[in-house]
Amino acid sequence: MDWSLANAFNPVRVASASARGVSPSLIDERFDHDSCGVGFVAAVDGAPDHEILKQALTALGRLAHRGATAADGKSSDGVGVLVAVPRNLLVQAADLSIDEGQVLGVGMLLIPHEETRAEGLLERCLLSHDFKVLCWRDVPVKTEFLGAMALGTMPKIRQVLVVDGKGAEQGTMERRLYLARKQFERSHERGDVTGYICSLSSQTIVYKAMVAGSFLADFYPDLASEDFVTPFAVFHQRYATNTLPTWHRAQPGRTLGHNGEINTVWGNRARMTARDSTLPVECKPVLTQGGTDSTSLDEAVELLSQNGRTLAEAIRMLLPPATEGHQSSLFLRYHTDCAEPWDGPAALAFSDGKVVGAALDRNGLRPCRFAITNKGLVVAGSEAGLVDLDPEEVTHSGRLGPGQMLLVDLVTHKVYEDEALLELFDAGATYATLMEDTPLVAATANPVDAATLAATQRGFGYTREDVKMILQPMAAEGKDAVWSMGDDTPLAFLAKSPRPIYAYFRQRFAQVTNPPIDSLRESCVVSLHTRLGPWPHMLDKNAPLPGVSIKSPFLSLGQVEALRQRQYPNEADLRMAELPCVFRPEVSLVQALDDLCGQAIELVRNGARILLLSDRSASAEKLPVPMAMATGAVHQALVSAGLRTLAGLAVEAGDCRDIHHAAVLIGYGAGAVCPWLALETGMSLAPAGTDASEAERKMLKSLDAGLAKVMSKMGISVVDSYRGAHLFDILGLHSSVVERCFVDTPAPLSGIGFTEVERQLRQTWQPVDQNVPVSADLPDYGWVRFRKADVSEPHAWQPPTVKALQSVVGSARNVPQPVDPAGAFAIYTRDVIARDPAVLRDLLEIRPAGPELALSDVELPSSICKRFVASAMSLGSLSPEAHQTITAAMNILGGRSNTGEGGEDAAVYRVHPIVEAGDGPSAGGTSLQAHAGGGTAVAEAVVEAPAVHVSLNNKIKQVASGRFGVTAEYLSHAEEIEIKVAQGAKPGEGGQLPGHKVSGMIARLRHAQPGVSLISPPPHHDIYSIEDLAQLIYDLKRVNPRAAVGVKLVSGCGVGTVAAGVAKAYADYVVIAGNTGGTGAAALSSIKYAGNPWELGLAEAQQVLVQNGMRGRVRLRTDGGLATARDVLIAALLGADEFAFGTAVLVVLGCDMARQCHLNTCPTGIATQKPELRAKFRGKPEHVVRFFEQLSADLQHLLARYGLPSIEAAVGRVDLLEQVRFDGNLNLEPMLAKVGDAPGRWMGIRNDQPLPKPPIDEAWVAPTMTAIEAGLPYVVDSKVANSDRAVGSRLAGEIALRRAQGDLPVDVTYNLHGTVGQSFGAFAVEGMKLVLQGQANDFVGKGLSGGEIVIKACGQAAKNSGQHVILGNVALYGATAGKLFAAGRAGERFAVRNSGALAVVEGVGDHGCEYMTGGLVGVLGKVGMNFGAGMTGGLAWVYDADGTFVSGKKYHPDFVDPELFDAVDAESQESLRALIEMHVEHSGSGLAKAMLADWANLAKGFVRLTPKPQH
């Protein structure tokens, strides 16, 4: 049996790096992800029918684009259906004779071919639970429908049929079948048997396989039989990020199918482990070791639904909606504290045979559309159009919004939507009597002792930078400090100066498979509320909630004092015990941890219900245990002792002085944190005569905001789900430390152990030389700003290095051009290489591949240069002069430059001479001349040429989450299009451009408002999952089929698996950026603690892609701190085909690393928009060209020295790298592992998706363009289906490209009928009119660039359009111009980042007009919450018929002001009427006609929303 089949049936959890020492490679199956399409079909009357199954199978076939194929090109990642047990079919097939009254139970098993124990063992399990086994059945299959991979791993597929035995307790059959399965799983967990039970039930059965969805019934003839009848069918199509998917991981599970990603799953699993001692033994194992996140969720739902809750209650309990808007629900209030949410993008379809339903996560990050017919059929799914329904029969077409549920009760024959379902839940128990929410009131804290403060700060390792650059902004402004230009100091494991233990932790972040969220603009979904004390029992819904209710996990000094003084609610039942986390000097740190854990266990066993871990008593005689280690060790000790649920952990930490530090403490189990020394320090910084407590309040506020931001990077919105989830990578700590204190955390590189940590601790508190006087000042190690002192940290771009490189290229001030540039570059390179190890590559040496080669036998420097890329740096972050100089230089060189996320001036595409302009790019031309005088960047004129060869056209166009300047014209002129998912300096966050850098020109290019800060959303709102990314790649390849499309990721453990998913999504290249990436502005804590070195991420991506046989399909590019030929060669050996440079390019242009980019005060004119500073810019294209020429020449010499004829020959030759230094006790063996025999480099072909047939609109392009060129109108009439995606985009790209050659009138109309697929009308340009009679899915009008989209309702929806949903989520994302008229309701995030389009729609979901910077939106119906969040431009009208939009503050009050219709001027009132008349003219809306007919009365219900001034 091959590897993948063995894994399929023995899904043992892959041990963490900590548990297995150091792994042989960086591949870790814990990071496998999946996503998919999901839905159900059900008959409300509960009548079984084969037609239900046929419709579900049809839906599966129509979800093919949401799934993926394996590496063999034919095997799917898995499809399946969950249906009712087909009793008659099975009884006949097995030739059985049983009484009609006997209930039939059926098990569906996947068994390895050589497994002989499974059937007998399961029979014994069934017998022990009072069942009679009737027979075993080999399920008929047709293997010709399988691909080679699926066939090679296909197990035996068998069914066991059972009935109750004599003496079986009536009415308990389902639970006994559940317990029999659990008994089998216990044997499986012990290794006594292999095999997988897909389902074992009298109500439901699961058929699943690794086959294309449209062939599931061909593979399983059972499903094609007319005798297979069912009243419902849940269907699922899987998309796995890896390409070695397995049979057992296909879905649905036993109760549900899941589309999405559980961001919190590590924490959910850890908390379930902690609850183990409170759970019934017969229900174990609760969670399957090594299962997917979907499997774990399915099993948790089963546990709840088998122990006192209904299936619907269990789903609602684990996937609750946001508290906002649901405060009145007692069920939700109780269960919010009863169990942490399984948080993350999720659309669920579920059933237990009695009910069938669907649910969405609290953020609404997956789509779910539904339709109900007048014949009692309910269809729900990831898209509209999965099942053909007669529009005249559809009485209700809707969508699930964030946190909503839909339930069909097959027993009572009722359909429940969200609010009705909550009322049902609320009536089910007396929750009101079980909740106590009395707050923890602060007592009077002891005053700060200024005399001892400095000494205490020194003991805990404080530095001047900690106080001035971190704590002071928190205390004065309540904000995290903002910084720029990234982090060029060594990470903790190679640091020269002492670093706290927290510095070895790197924050994890979401990218591609799940999105980060915006904790500021979408704060309505964020909850920091928690309870301190014992955990509620998740299976006892009648138990009062224990513990103290607190609004935030951060405690003030007074609140900790209240705990000490026993002044808190329920004190008698919540005994608090203080646990000093200090040890005597004669005791070792390990022994101190042993003692600490022993004391914690004893205290809890003796009745303590709150443990206060404190290092307040620390001194030279009582050394503090690093609080992260103390917290993690105590938490784990209580888990191991089965006591964790009995007590809460409060932590009073003197060494916690940063948002990141606090996040680590909570991430390893702390229920509440008081950073007492940081708070006292902040209070000491308060100006004389002011209230010091205000400084404490601001610091706590900044900690709240900072923690929410850290959580949101992983897409987590509830602190209870983040606690104990250990969502970090550890770099530089030994496995002994990780296993003891930080269990299950990825730690791939080993590092220092307890001895080294203790040594540093003693040196801080007990200096070796007691005679040396202690300085009054705290030390300054230059961790943020460069310092010259010997004890200070080195910076990669410290002044001598900067000057040396600028001297080479001729951009240094007052330094003549070197006579011997090659010699000068060699000196610069030698000095960089000779530094103390500061990055991972400094620990490596290159071994020769063979004898040294003659230079004439090695690739030419001019060829090597084509692999060089100038990293993405936006116009806005950089001055126009700097941005254009880089572009010109890379085009001269034959390399590539990247626009960054700010767009570029369309003038560079147009065929005309480039002339000087006044303020940088403009419609009249482009110039590199600073308009206030000063250094000229380029003197040569640019002659007329085809647009793609204009010297100022960036070959790489970036598409970032803000979509600034992303139009059809922009995209159609790209050689490459790069989707920036994350940025090295701040992964999990969006870009920032401070308002003082948004000049008039920058605002014009970004379609924004001058002087207003521009914040890109943390996620791409059209990438919430891997299949969403595949859709965006498809869209971009439609609008520009000539361009290669790439995806930029950031290094982090698990990035290799994401890279594999990106390759499966048909990207052409993947960028792996390192943590050292520069930035114009970012939070200092993000710069310092998020993202890993590129060496690690690149090596992991290479390993995973090779292992999965996909490396040859994509180019790998790396980015982050490259500065020498040696850097480039090591990157190539680790797997990079191409190499991107950011900071180095800025340095050669004159950057002196002043790190003032965010302040708009760059003294060299590079990162500023101020004319007087731009005039100081001295960079020239030849400076950049000279740098890359020297670099490539040096690289040619290196290749020759090591016997490599070309870069291509070096790519992936990791065997030529050897670790020769072991600083920090690092072991780079996993990074240098050689994995598999598949190609280790790009094989030179595009990674295009093989399509079964050309897209429907492909055939329309040529005749349309012929008509356009002839000046004739062109009309297309066609039916469309949900598989017809990005309709119109292909033509839009062609028109945009042609228009660059001159004016081109366009008159094209597409008249379409049906349900169209995603991205309808994406990037449509002026002159295009797309009219749809029917309904559309997500992303309508994405990037709309002047076109017009009309969606007309049909059938019942046309008669009552305002009540029907006819378009999906995220419409008009990034639209810059054009019109949309929709005679129906839309989903979530309508007009997100709209910056110029006009739209009228008849209702929207949550987060409407989010981040909008321009355009006009009219909403004629109901609106969800958080309307206008982040809106800084444009205008919106909302019809507020019942006044709840204003009274309920469904808008974001920080960003928009509401004005009632009667309060606005007559001209504005008339403009609204004209807008609605236009809507009637285009869409024929019945709702709009009715409004106009009674305008005098109904108009008063409108509210105008205008953006508030933002500073």
Topology (elements, then pairings):
Elements: H1 3-9, E1 34-43, H2 50-61, E2 79-84, H3 87-93, E3 105-111, H4 118-128, E4 131-138, H5 148-153, E5 156-164, H6 173-190, E6 196-201, E7 204-209, H7 216-219, H8 221-224, E8 232-240, E9 256-260, H9 265-274, H10 293-305, H11 311-318, H12 330-338, E10 346-351, E11 355-360, E12 369-373, E13 377-381, E14 394-399, E15 405-409, E16 414-416, H13 418-426, H14 450-459, H15 464-477, E17 482-483, E18 505-507, E19 530-532, E20 548-550, H16 557-564, E21 576-580, E22 582-583, H17 589-605, E23 610-614, E24 623-624, H18 627-640, E25 648-652, H19 659-667, E26 672-674, H20 676-684, H21 692-713, H22 719-722, E27 728-730, E28 732-733, H23 735-741, E29 751-752, H24 754-765, H25 799-809, H26 821-833, E30 844-846, H27 861-864, E31 868-870, H28 880-893, E32 896-897, E33 956-959, H29 968-972, E34 976-980, E35 992-993, H30 1000-1006, E36 1014-1015, H31 1026-1039, E37 1044-1050, H32 1055-1064, E38 1069-1073, E39 1082-1083, H33 1084-1089, H34 1094-1107, E40 1115-1119, H35 1125-1134, E41 1138-1141, H36 1143-1148, H37 1171-1174, H38 1181-1201, H39 1207-1210, ...
Parallel strand pairs: 21-23, 23-25, 25-26, 28-29, 31-32, 31-41, 33-34, 34-37, 37-38, 38-40, 40-41, 43-44, 44-45, 45-46, 46-47, 47-48, 48-49, 49-50
Antiparallel strand pairs: 1-8, 1-13, 2-7, 2-8, 3-5, 3-6, 4-5, 9-10, 10-11, 11-15, 12-13, 12-14, 15-16, 17-39, 18-27, 19-20, 22-24, 30-42, 35-36, 50-52, 51-52
Helix pairs in contact: 4-6, 10-11, 14-20, 15-20, 15-21, 17-18, 19-21, 20-21, 25-26, 25-38, 26-38, 28-38, 31-41, 32-34, 35-38, 40-41, 44-45
Keywords: 3Fe-4S, Amino-acid biosynthesis, Flavoprotein, FMN, Glutamate biosynthesis, Glutamine amidotransferase, Iron, Iron-sulfur, Metal-binding, Oxidoreductase
Cofactor: [3Fe-4S] cluster; FMN
Family: Belongs to the glutamate synthase family.
